[in-house]
Amino acid sequence: MRTQDNQYFKFLIINIILSLFVGCAITDPRMNYESDRSKIISSVFYETNDSAITKKVLFIGDNQINENHGYPAFIQSSFADQFVAVSRRPVQQTIFGEEILRQILKSEQVPVIHLGDALNLSCKSEFERFIKLMNESNLEWVMAPGNHDGFFTGVTLGTDDIRNGGHFRSLHPDYGRDRDVWEAVCKNSIPLTKPTLVQDYLEVLKNNSDKRVSTIRSNKNCAHNIYQANLINESYSCIYSDKTRKDRPWASFIIQKIDISNINKNLEKVSLILIDTSVYENSLLFREGGAGVIGGLGKTQRAILEEWLTNNAKAGILTILAGHHPIKQLNDKDDIKFLTEHSKNRSFLYYISAHTHSGAIYFHDKDTQKEIAEINLGSIYDSPIEYRYFELFRESINNQRVVAHAPLLRISDPNSKFDSSCKNIVLPKSGEPHSIETQASAWANGPYTAKLMEIRAELHLLNDLFRNFPSSSSDLLNSASINTINHLLVQVKSQQELTKKCRFKVNKFKCEKKWGIDKAVRDNILPPLRDIFAWERTRSVSDKEAYSIYKACQAKLASDADLNYGNNIWRKMLSGGKNIIP
How many domains does the chain have? Predict the structure, then answer.
């Protein structure tokens, strides 16, 4: 067997083993938590005479906007999806998934704290779509980077393969190096590395603060900024080049201090520190589990966090920490020691996290002085779609204790306004080319064979969309786009006939290349599809709200169906009963 094949199956085996241990500290997600110094109320309703000492804020994460129109890679194939359930999702999710986030933001009038994985493949186009959507909400918002924000598929920077310095071959048999694969799947854009992600996000903070930013200290790589804005107080960031391994791009990070105090009552000061948990002292590779499995703070960020916690304590400011990875996934012993010691000293009240795609309350070292209460979010992309509100109270009967009201909200709950909006919306029927069953059926196909099935499903979804929500009569591109879709469907069918010649080939990618399937998809099918996708997002319809809800419901229903469809004995056996491996 070839070395590449051995490497790939090694990667699959590592993920299967790791998945057996995911979520081992999770309690019931609706369970309340109480200790002598803090309390968590996770029920939706909380009637109290206690004083709210923070603003009500919305915590969200893991919406994973996806670049759907680059070249395919084996890691996104249906075969890989049998082992790692998020390798491949229904097209309804990948092209409409961000509409769920849009609907949630529309229903809120509170500041938003995003705990990472805003992106999926980490392409520049994904980040641009995310920023546009967040800013359209007109809500104050900030984010902590997740492992998918700056790392290819949430796992690696491909740093051992950067430029001419790398010697490792890729796990992907269809391209040469990990960086080559990243560039291929982001072909409609460019890869967004961790250093670039931090730099671009700093520009967002600057623009959203009306450019009222002052730098109080900086050196070659790092800068400490103060913001004159209602939500963010300050940030400290370090940005390293990604030209070579010696530049240590994986050590780039941003840590932020947010003021969530209840300014109306002016009772106490409460600071939320957003940590970057995708920071590493050494390079991460696919072969080692990667950023999706291992979180880290890094020495420099720990030093800044130490300073901020100490200053807050001296000033009598209550502190809450938040970051993407759960505490159990912080790999560095120094990180765990740091957090437990500061919990013992009561430097912070709670740690809030995301990443698991299944919201819960964790508690670490329960009934000890080092006890840490962790409030974990769900995902607003993968079922069950979840998010949390957060509000902190000073308990009236025991003013030495605070109470966190942090309900876990699911949009599938019977009382959910979102769920009721979806009652009359249905997915394509079984057997149709864009049904969930059809999309999931070709699990052993080559990358372009699977890509053609995905493209065909998207074209049929767009046809449904235009039929149910016609463009306004003034839209001159409407007829041309519909004609293009029908023309593309003919081309896709023709290429799918050719893929049958590769059905029983071991190296399907080589076979697809031999028959010109890869060239036809790249040159003749994807470019016009990208144009149609861009037009669809700006086209004029009579009822824009109903249009957005329809797309959000298609994504939500597809997410539910994908979870149920994948909940089979084969996947359970391979993944230890877990359908989601972040």
Answer: 1
Count the neighbouring beta carbons within 10 Å of the beta carbon of residue 265.
10
Which of helix, strand or coil describes residue 110? coil
Identify the pLDDT of residue 445: 67
- The whole-chain average pLDDT of the chain stands at 83
Does any domain span residue 542?
yes
Full domain range(s) for residue 486: 428-575
Beta bridge partners of 390: 57
The confidence band for 564, taking pLDDT boundaries of 50, 70 and 90, is confident
Planar angle of CA 359, 360, 362, nearest 5 degrees: 140
The per-residue pLDDT for range 63-108, each reduced to its tens digit, is: 999 999 999 876 665 555 555 555 678 999 999 999 999 999 988 8
DSSP classification of residue 427: P
**pTM, full prediction:** 0.89
Which of 15-29, 44-58, 410-424, 564-578 is the least confident region? 15-29
Inside any domain, residue 537: yes
Contacts of 355 (CB under 8 A, 6+ apart): 61, 62, 115, 116, 117, 146, 147, 295, 324, 325, 326, 329, 376, 582
Peptide bond before 384: cis, by omega within 30 degrees of 0? yes
Give buried/exposed letters for 110-126 (b at 16+ CB in 10 A, else e). ebbbbbbbbbbbbbbbb
The dihedral of CA 195, 200, 206, 211: what is its sign? positive
Give the contacts of 213 (CB within 8 A, at least 6 positions apart). 205, 206, 225, 226, 227, 228
In a domain, 500, yes or no: yes
Closest CA to 63 of 349, 373, 355: 355
Quick check: is 563 in a domain? yes
524, amino acid identity: N
Number of H helices, E strands in the chain: 18, 18
Quote the Cα angle for 539-544-548, to 5°. Answer: 95
Give the 3-state secondary structure percentages of the chain, helix then strand then coil, rounded to 5: 40, 15, 45
pLDDT per residue as tens digits for the range 363-418: 887 767 678 889 999 899 998 899 999 999 998 888 888 999 999 998 877 667 77
Nearest C-alpha neighbor of 166 from the set 266, 75, 245, 60 = 245
Tokens standing for residue 562: 């994908």
